[in-house]
Amino acid sequence: MKTVIGVDEVGRGPLAGPVVVSAFRLRTKSTFAKKTKILDSKKLSEKEREEYYSKILEERSKGNVDFATASVGAKVIDRENISRSLRYGIKKALKKINALEEEKILLDGSLYAPKKFIDQETIIKGDEKEKVIALSSIVAKVERDRKMIRLV
Asked: Mean pLDDT, to the nearest integer, of 142-147?
C-alpha cells in the first residue's frame, strides 16, 4: 500500500521545554485527509487540535494512518544545539514508525531526514501546503502541549 510520511516539529522557539518531532504516515488511498480541511496546528485553537487528534487516533485504529513522536529535552538542545537536536528527533521519530528508505517523506521548513531516505522533499511552509505535514504538525503540537502541562 502506497504511503507518504509528513514530518514537522514544534517547540523550536519557546524558552522552555522540549522540541517535539512528529513523523506521520498517511495511506495515500485513505479518504481521511481528502475529506477533511486540515490546517497547520498554529492556525487551530487548542480545542480544534484536540478534536483533530481524536480523529487521528480513530484513523490509526483503522490502519489508515500511523505516527510517532520524538521529544528532545532542553538539556540536549543546550548541549548539542537546536539543529542537531532536530536531526536526532527526526531520525528517532522515523525509526519509531519503521520508515522505509524508499518511502516518500515530506518535511516542513528547513527540516531534513537522514540521507538514507532517498525520496524526501523539504517544503517551506509545508504545514500550510501539504495535509500530511499539517497532520504531523497537529500531533506534535498536541503531544508537546500535553507534556508541558504535565511538567507544570
From this structure: 95
